[in-house]
Amino acid sequence: MIYFDNSATTFPSDRVRAVISDMMKDEYSGNPGSLHKLGVSADKAYGETQAKVAKLLGASSDEIIFTSCATEGANTAIRGFMSRNSRAGRRVISTRTEHKASLECLSLLEKSGYEVVYLPVGRDGKPDLSELEKALTEEKTALFCFTLVNNETGSILPLDQIVSMRNKLSPDTKIYLDAVQALGKMPIDLHKMNVDMCSFSGHKIHSVKGTGVLYVKNGVRIDPLILGGGQQKGMRSGTQSLLLAKAFEAALEEAVETMDDSHGNAAKINEYLRKELAERKAVILSPEDALPYVLNVSFEGFESETMLHCLEIYDIFVSTVSACSSKAKKVSYVLLESGVDRKTAANAVRLSFSRYNSMEEAEQFIQKVDVIYDLYAVRK
Ligand code: PLP
């Protein structure tokens, strides 16, 4: 099997599997809210995990909220912030190339009378910063909502420029950042990055599904999405899962340890595939300066889904548009919004890599693409 669909999800690493199996023991199964010793030890372990995750992300322990996934993080941050901070203004600035987890929240806000300004995005996947500057001088803006690494193309947000523009022109505006596809793939230091809220997902970094983290900077107030017993500073009620928090910690720790080697490996695979595919007249849609873990490519003559299923015959797994919307048989809105023409976008396939992929797999992939092209030419 060649699994080039790591931006959709990853398989749990051995270290994560070992942690999960260990955490199934009775001694870790108490409720962190219980007053007896099982509860106290679970609470202590939970706090240690929070501290470790915070350290790895450049944050403080009390800024880390464990969630079920990044979609929950986006909902909590965007909706929770806007609902809590009515005096901050009724305007949000974002782009139409965000993940649906953010876009659906923004659409709900619009239906409730908020204004959302969507900045145009170029072929490089980056928002137009002159439009951002203009928008900031027009009216008070409560929130920015951006993605650090786009899940379909790998394009990287010019975060430093955006943060300095905010600091200079509208210092009270808060920033929500979706860092799902950046986690473990580029350095993350939340205090240095100077964002106010940021979401992450465990299953994209070889943890398990059902675990995520939302960072909320100290001093930033949000209304919780989930009400109840007031766990996690009241920001996310519900009995904390030590098992899932530990599974996130283990995956993050491993991702950080292996980040440099992993980046080098992805860069080599990406460079090789870009070259080989371009020679085969495929159109490379990921920008040159994208993170190398994602390579979006359009195969002339093959609709996205056709190519996906042709590759699947050889046990090669890729995505068409992002996994959550791929069943809807749509052409990628991210590519269309970035100015890719509909015909090219309709043939786009996303290859996404992890540290477990190899150059041998990349070579086999190219061999199979050749076989598919040949079969297709014969049928024509
Ligand atoms: N944001 C981005 C950029 C993503 O790629 C994804 C998942 O594909 C999400 C948010 C949602 O993450 P989750 O599956 O943890 O809800």
Chart the SSEs and their pairings:
Elements (H helix, E strand, L loop, with lengths): L1 E2 L10 H10 L13 H21 L6 E4 L2 H15 L6 E5 L4 H12 L3 E5 L9 H10 L4 E5 L11 H11 L4 E5 L11 H4 L3 E5 L10 E5 L25 H16 L1 H21 L3 E2 L9 E5 L5 H10 L2 E2 L15 H5 L4 H5 L1 E5 L6 H21 L1
Parallel strand pairs: 1-11, 3-4, 3-5, 5-6, 6-7
Antiparallel strand pairs: 2-8, 7-8, 9-10, 10-12
Explain what the structure shows.
With 380 residues, this protein is an alpha/beta fold. Helix content is 42%, strand content 13%. It contains 13 helices and twelve strands. The strands form three sheets. It has a seven-stranded mixed sheet, with helices on both faces. Strand 3 (91-95), helix 4 and strand 4 (115-119) form a beta-alpha-beta unit. Helix 2 runs parallel beside helix 8 (242-257) and helix 9 packs parallel to helix 13. The mean pLDDT is 96. Pyridoxal-5'-phosphate binds at residues 69-71, 99, 101, 147, 151, 178, 180-181, 201, 212, 322, 324.
